[in-house]
Amino acid sequence: MSDPQHARFTEADLDRLEELLDSAIFNDQAMQLDELQALICAVVSGPEVVPTSIWLTAALGESPAYASAEQANEVLTLVMSFYNDIAATLQQDEPWELILYPFADDPDELDFAAWADAYIYGTQLGNDWYEFAGDQAEDLSELLQSLFLLNGMLKEDAEKNQERWISAADEKLAISRAQEELPELVSAIYDFWRVRRSAGEGSAFSGGESPAGGSETCPCGSGKKYQQCCGSPAKLH
User: Fold this and answer.
1) What is the rounded CA–CA span in Å between residue 130 and residue 128?
2) Following DSSP, what letter does each residue of 82-138 receive, concatenated?
């Protein structure tokens, strides 16, 4: 059964969030919607909770020029609802779709590299994933390999180290397969950490937890505690 909170994040909400992210509020420092989706996918999947103040600053920039407290509240409510929607989708193992934009110079080609790059960035906001993976670090590396292929880092490292790279045909085939399997891969990474969390190895977001600590100051700048401001149940749910 779907979470009612999850179901209430609509296409209209996505459109409004996209519009706000692309507005002058953020002076071109905010992520686009595709990058925000990728970042949040990584943040909710990892071994430990990443404080809202950290990932939200990474997503929106350090000094948004909100016109009013109401505008700040609208942005933060939408972003946190988007966060909760993604977390619920992965937790409940529901089908989901990537948000992708086309390249500016090639409208027929979708920019998987930007999505993968934002996800990798999200993995670096908290504690070291490989350290938490311990003796399963090699398994984690295999899971992340397709993301490094999509954002170009695998090829870049091979060329930098003067290592042999696969043929152009094989590279095209590998990238195509990685693109097709990306949603399932992200779910598999989430499950990788979920198994470890359920075994008591680290802690991270679960459906019953607030995405930000109650003692954490709200990112909207009100000076109130998060759960007394934009993180209150009335606003998040």
Assistant:
1) 6
2) HHHHHHHHHHTT--------EETTEEEEE-HHHHHHHHHHHHTSSS-HHHHHGGGHH
Backbone dihedral angles phi then psi of residue 102, each to the nearest 5 degrees: -75, 160
DSSP state of 165: -
What pTM was estimated for this model as a whole? 0.83
Contact present, 85 and 78 (Cβ < 8 Å): no
The domains found in the chain, sorted by start residue, are 4-204 (1.20.120.740)
User: In Å, how far from its chain's centre is CA 134?
Assistant: 23
Q: Are 140 and 61 in contact (CB under 8 A)?
A: no
Identity of residue 77: T
Q: In the prediction, which pLDDT does 10 show?
A: 92
> Could you tell me which residues come within 8 angstroms of residue 125 by beta carbon, excluding any fewer than 6 positions away?
42, 43, 50, 54, 55, 58
What is the predicted pLDDT for the residue at 222?
57
Helix (H), strand (E) at residue 88: helix 69-91
